[in-house]
TrEMBL record:
One function term, GO molecular function aspect: glutamate 5-kinase activity
Biological role stated in the UniProt entry: Catalyzes the transfer of a phosphate group to glutamate to form L-glutamate 5-phosphate.
PANTHER family: GLUTAMATE 5-KINASE, ISOPENTENYL PHOSPHATE KINASE
Name this polypeptide is given: Glutamate 5-kinase
Protein's cellular compartments: Cytoplasm
Domain Aspartate/glutamate/uridylate kinase stretches: 8-238
Keyword Kinase: yes
Family: Belongs to the glutamate 5-kinase family.
The enzyme's E.C. designation: 2.7.2.11
Catalytic activity reported: L-glutamate + ATP = L-glutamyl 5-phosphate + ADP
Top-level lineage group: Bacteria
Length: 264
């Protein structure tokens, strides 16, 4: 964990379960705490890109829907409403700490198309140069990959590769990767360090995400696999306490640490 003490650029991914209450409405307390910690980290000289889920969940709450839509068009419509609200709140909260934000809405095609890929990298670098905080989400109104597959976990790893981050921090609603299902086995223990992501870990991580999100531990393992293979240390931590980010950067053992291969 001590390797992160020298991190100069990190990507933080926050999921729907951290940003919203069980009702689907925004958890303002957690969102404010997250923004305060990120602002303080940026003040210390570390560059931070924030990959945020929550557009659909926030949209569900904003529209007063009882449940998350099950059809793609309904999810996309909720996302268009929720994304406006989400960015308004981020911009307002970060602004209170003197930080500007830049919105990136990305699709799989943007990453795979060579010209778009290069344009994304250049835009990220210039945003950092200008001292703004990039806030990234998948463009749910036109893309269905995240809606179907996984709450932006893989996207956060892809962004970490694009910006050549030193570390990827994935914030979720549990303390890390357990050796068994903690909801069914009270003796389940957190796996503190993972040197290699194996098929056995994917079997352990089976299970669905929260009511308003789409991700689960499996999608986070996939993200960790993408990032670590690119030389980026990855940590899964509980996002309900934003101070866990400080602990990780200070080298304390928090959550599950996935060791990068061929570290940059």
């Amino acid at each position: 964990m001590a390797t992160l003490k020298d991190a100069k650029r990190i990507v933080i991914k926050v999921g729907t379960s951290t940003l919203t209450h069980s009702t689907g409405k925004t958890n303002i307390r957690r969102m404010k705490a997250l923004v305060a910690v990120i602002s303080d980290i940026v003040n210390s000289g570390i560059e931070v890109a924030l990959v945020t889920s929550g557009a659909i969940g926030v949209g569900v709450g904003k529209l007063g829907l009882k449940d998350r839509p099950t059809d793609t068009a309904g999810k996309q419509a909720a996302a268009t409403v929720g994304q406006c609200e989400l960015m308004f709140m981020y911009d307002k909260m970060f602004g209170e700490f003197g930080h500007a934000t830049g919105q990136f809405l990305i699709t799989k095609r943007d990453v795979e198309h060579e010209e778009c890929h290069n344009n994304l990298i250049n835009a990220f670098e210039k945003t950092f140069e200008y001292g703004a905080i990039p806030i990234i989400n998948e463009n749910d109104a036109v893309a269905v990959e995240e809606i179907v597959y996984g709450d932006n976990d893989s996207l956060s790893a892809i962004v970490a590769k694009l910006v050549k981050a030193d570390a990827l921090l994935i914030l979720t609603d549990i303390d890390g990767l357990y050796d068994d299902n903690p909801n069914e086995n009270e003796d389940a223990r957190i796996i503190p360090v993972v040197e290699e992501i194996t098929e056995g870990l994917f079997e352990i991580a089976g299970g669905k995400g929260s009511k308003f999100g789409t991700g689960g531990m499996i999608t986070k393992l996939i993200a960790a696999q993408i990032a670590t293979e690119a030389g980026i240390d990855t940590i899964i931590i509980n996002g309900f306490d934003a101070d866990n980010i400080y602990k990780v950067l200070e080298g304390h053992q928090v959550g599950t640490f996935f060791v990068a291969k061929n570290r940059k």
